[in-house]
Write a structure and sequence with these properties.
The chain is of the alpha/beta class. Helix content is 50%, strand content 12%. It has nine helices and five strands. Strand 4 (130-134), helix 7 and strand 5 form a beta-alpha-beta unit. The longest helix is centred in the N-terminal third of the chain and has 20 residues, at 2-21. The termini are far apart.
């Protein structure tokens, strides 16, 4: 009897662990739903043409409208100022949030960047849209995405893709310069994001 009880307890513990580790999911997008890619130069597509930036490629891969709302040089603070207008204009169902690189380049305090990301997420959710958080690697050799992306994602129950740009920017064949992808790199980003959206249930 005790053996059976221990076995049941172990199975229950494993079930709870699996539930805790399960990634947050997203509502399924309809064919007419709009996705907004909101970010800085990585979203805008510096290093490639407009039609090879990742939002344009993602639109083709997903058969959805994907708005490129990337502004080169944008920080999390400046993005907060323009976000309400972008949300009002496009009324997205999903926002791909990719910011923080310029904060790091300008050596803004990590705590301020993290707080701004949380405010961005709250503003997006208040509009009725869902959010995918995309991590940006630190601008240094072997620099992955800072820990604050994972903290924001965990605390706010967000799907997080923190490896895409880190992997692309480590491959010289996929870069236009040290901090931007080229057309081939942005295609990889779009392909990975399309798979990620399928995984989370959005597609």
């Amino acid at each position: 009897m005790q053996l059976i009880q221990r076995s049941l307890f172990t199975l229950f513990a494993l079930f709870l662990l699996a539930a805790c580790e399960r990634a947050p999911t997203l509502p399924k997008l309809n064919s007419h739903d709009v996705i907004v890619a909101f970010g800085d130069s990585l979203t805008h597509g510096i290093g490639a043409s407009a039609d090879t930036a990742y939002p344009a490629v993602l639109a083709t891969l997903t058969s959805r409208t994907v708005i490129n709302a990337g502004v080169p040089g944008d920080t999390t603070a400046s993005a907060l100022l323009r976000l309400p207008e972008v949300l009002a204009e496009h009324q997205p169902r999903l926002v791909l949030l990719c910011l923080g690189g310029n904060d790091m380049l300008r050596q803004h305090p990590a705590a301020a960047t993290e707080n701004n990301l949380r405010l961005l997420v709250r503003t997006i959710r208040a509009s009725g849209a869902s959010v995918v958080l995309i991590g940006v690697p630190e601008p240094k050799l072997f620099g992955g995405a800072p820990d604050f992306y994972a903290r924001v994602a965990e605390d706010m129950q967000l799907p997080l893709e923190q490896d895409i740009f880190n992997n692309v920017l480590k491959d010289n064949r996929l870069k236009s310069d040290s901090i931007h992808a080229n057309a081939a790199g942005y295609r990889v980003v779009a392909e990975r994001l399309a798979e990620f959206l399928k995984k989370t249930g959005a597609l």
